[in-house]
């Protein structure tokens, strides 16, 4: 274990499509229309269909587990959704080690839209083997 | 003071009361559909649940019809995931959820209703494997 505060996780770039939103709706069982019905989404004041918050959480979970590999385990993570994201635009997941305490490390994680707005922000705790 | 309790008061009456337990088996096919949907091909997820899979087995949030009297739509404000043990294909997972807080906030764009849900997931041995929290927002 040689994690250092400030270490950056390799970026994970996702390219969500409307097809993926439908696929995710089915796999999760979340059929709220804002994720696949453009007219419905606009009727509740959204720009169109938007990514599921939990899909963005899945992306950020993958950011951490891809980086961690078999070196340790993810103990917890939490995310706040600060803005909506739409399909057809790349979604960039980023993170860095914020503190290390023995085998445990806390990470700062976030997801950015193409303009660099952090539309999802959060933290994760990992424990190294 | 109104004779009819407000939506917020009626929702607050749910705080702390666990909903009915729901059980489901972690199936390899469901896991595969889920990992394909999120685009995560890490090999371990062929037999083990990736970090957010439990929401597909049993949702973090319960359906509260009275909440839909407030505002016009739902937004997900955030999620928290805590893991105690891995969840694997073949495990029978029982989920028990409850409302842990309900409050209203007034901001520049109007009023928002926040409902905080917490769901605990137990394996077939009765051990807590994960605890998930979700912030549902009506706007």
Name the shape of chain B in a single word.
Answer: elongated
Q: Give a count of the beta strands of chain A, DSSP E runs of length 2 or more.
A: 5
Low-confidence parts of chain A, pLDDT < 50 over ≥5 residues?
Answer: none
- Enumerate how many helices of chain B there are, as a single number: 3
Structural notes for this entry:
The complex is a heterodimer of chains A (129) and B (139). With 129 residues, chain A is of the alpha+beta class. Chain A is 26% helix and 34% strand. Chain A has helices at 18-28, 38-43, 53-68, and strands at 12-14, 72-81, 91-101, 104-112, 118-128. With 139 residues, chain B is an alpha+beta fold. Chain B starts with 6 loop residues before the first helix and ends with a strand. In chain B, strand 4 and strand 5 (128-138) form a beta hairpin. The chains are: A alpha+beta (129), B alpha+beta (139). At the A-B interface, helix 1, helix 3 and strand 2 of A face helix 2 and strand 2 of B. Strand 2 (72-81) of chain A pairs antiparallel with strand 2 of chain B.
Quick recap:
Chain A is built from 3 helices and 5 strands, in the order βαααββββ.
Tags for this entry?
heterodimer; A: 129 residues; alpha+beta; 26% helix; B: 139 residues; five-stranded antiparallel sheet; 15% helix; 39% strand; elongated
Give me the secondary-structure topology.
The complex is a heterodimer of chains A (129) and B (139).
Chain A lengths: L11 E3 L3 H11 L9 H6 L9 H16 L3 E10 L9 E11 L2 E9 L5 E11 L1
Antiparallel strand pairs in A: 1-3, 2-5, 3-4, 4-5
Chain B lengths: L6 H6 L9 E4 L2 H11 L15 H4 L16 E10 L8 E16 L2 E13 L5 E11 L1
Antiparallel strand pairs in B: 1-3, 2-5, 3-4, 4-5
């Amino acid at each position: 274990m040689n994690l250092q505060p400030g270490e950056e996780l390799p970026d994970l770039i996702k390219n969500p499509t409307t097809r993926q939103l439908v696929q995710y709706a089915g796999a999760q069982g979340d059929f709220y229309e804002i994720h696949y019905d453009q007219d419905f989404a606009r009727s509740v004041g959204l720009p169109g269909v938007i990514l599921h918050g939990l899909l963005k959480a899945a992306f950020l979970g993958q950011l951490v587990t891809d980086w961690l590999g078999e070196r340790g385990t993810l103990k917890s993570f939490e995310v706040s959704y600060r803005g909506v994201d739409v399909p057809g635009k790349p979604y960039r997941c980023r993170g860095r080690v914020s503190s290390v305490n023995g085998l445990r490390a806390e990470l700062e994680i976030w997801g950015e839209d193409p303009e660099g707005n952090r539309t999802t922000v959060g933290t994760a705790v990992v424990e190294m083997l | 003071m109104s004779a009819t309790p407000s939506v917020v008061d009626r929702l607050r009456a749910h705080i702390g009361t666990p909903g009915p337990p729901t059980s489901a088996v972690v199936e390899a096919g469901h896991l595969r559909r889920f990992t394909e949907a999120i685009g995560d091909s890490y090999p371990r997820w062929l037999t083990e649940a990736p970090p957010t899979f439990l929401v597909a087995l049993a949702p973090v949030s319960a359906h509260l019809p009275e909440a839909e009297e407030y505002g016009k739509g739902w937004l997900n404000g955030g999620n928290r995931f805590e893991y105690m043990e891995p969840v694997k294909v073949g495990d029978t997972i029982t989920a028990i959820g409850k409302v842990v807080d309900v409050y209203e906030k007034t901001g520049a764009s109007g009023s928002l209703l926040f409902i905080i849900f917490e769901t605990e997931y137990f394996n077939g041995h009765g051990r807590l494997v994960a605890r998930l929290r979700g912030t549902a927002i009506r706007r």
